[in-house]
Design goal:
Radius of gyration: 32 Å
Order of helices and strands: HEEHEEEEEEEE
Largest sheet: 4 strands, antiparallel
Number of strands: 10
Shape: globular
Strand order of the largest sheet: 3-10-5-8
Number of helices: 2
Helix content: 10-25%
Distance between the termini: 82 Å
Strand content: 25-35%
Amino acid sequence: MKKLISLGLLVGLLVGCSVDASNTSQNDSGKTKETTENKTKEEAKKPAEKKKEASKAKDTKLGAGTFYVGEDINEGRYIVSTQQTTANFMVYEKNGMLATNEVIGTEKSIAVNNLTVELKDGQKIEIKGANEVQFKVK
């Protein structure tokens, strides 16, 4: 009976060691290292890195009127300015909600110049009171 128990323990020990050995291997220096299977599992746990897409934005000039991002101007981050005294600059979301409403121009008491905006496809831009508004890529 003792021989059967000893044999069972020995078999159990050998099976346990073989399962553990399947997850590690030795390199030339004798150090153990993880197998590719374990590394793949660890990499799957890491959050996916966001790849930055190349910006579609490019310097553009628009006058008074209504314009659409993706048609009249590329989406992207811009610095908006004009050399005129004042102009009204508005951006609307796809759903019609007003996203930006600024007086831009050189009149420092009531206007801002060099306004930074992030334009997204489908937004509508309205410019009133300016012959030329510059959109420089930021």
